[in-house]
Amino acid sequence: MTLDDVNRRDTFLAVLVASLWGFNFVVIDWGMGTVPPLLFAAIRFAVVAVPACFLVPRPAVPFRTVAAVGAFMSLGQFGLLYLSMHLGMPPGLAALVLQAQVVFTIVIAAVVLRERPSRAQVAGVALGVAGLAVVGIGIGGSITLLALTLCLLAGLSWGIGNVVSRSSKAPGGLALTVWSATVVPVPLLALSLLIDGPAEVGRGLAHIGWHGALSTVYTAGLCSLVGYAIFNRLLSRYPSGQVVPWVLLAPVVAMASSWALLGEAPGPAELAGAVLLVAGVLIAQGTIRVRSARRAGEPAVPGAVAGEPVPGEPPRAAVSVLD
Fold it and tell me: What is the value of pTM for the model shown?
């Protein structure tokens, strides 16, 4: 498949989503303030679901599938992420650690959906994981084990949600985003009442402030309604391994915005990790092609003629970034 206008558009959309999600971490940190984290997440998804669920028809898939997407991609991911950030996980580092979802998604999709990743995707993701490891080593012990574990579990929940969304093949990403959000607010509110107590929940609602309101508008409107609508649509059209590596760009945006707005200057390890992450995405999507060890022009199979198709193998066409 060639790089036609549609695929160019989908590539742009994938980069847009990664950018929106990267800046999202700074917005969450800025807006949470004194609001309990689970309550803040519940407010976000209440805004996503209402009144949109009365305006957008339910997707043509079983509701148990819609509920599973909401439970893993939204409830599990953001409940655990907000708790992690509340316990001290910085926005830039949270964005990096959460990208473990890329590995989780590709592995789960390979087992459950039989979507075998290409060598380029494996190489690109491995390079991205190396970038995460470089950052983790550079950070050292400045983050609590509980905060780190919660963030990794958030990535696992997101990875499961990605595979459920991919397997549903629900037409129209917006409908799946809106209706999957309907199962999120009540459990999050109940957990907040249980963990934080009614008095703290009431205090949080009374003191949400304009920071919290603007943060909710951004996270609910741009990140959830726009971002996940596009992301779920891409997952319905392409294999998981060709979509999720783009999200590795989000930590780069998160670190840049944290530096610019919060004064959290990245250290050498974070900068090196960001470079590896970007390179991993470009390799996984075929923008950077890794040459094999054999000499140029040498056939891949003994006895074959260089430049001619290998017997039994279909001719290779040009591949787009999101082909």
Answer: 0.75
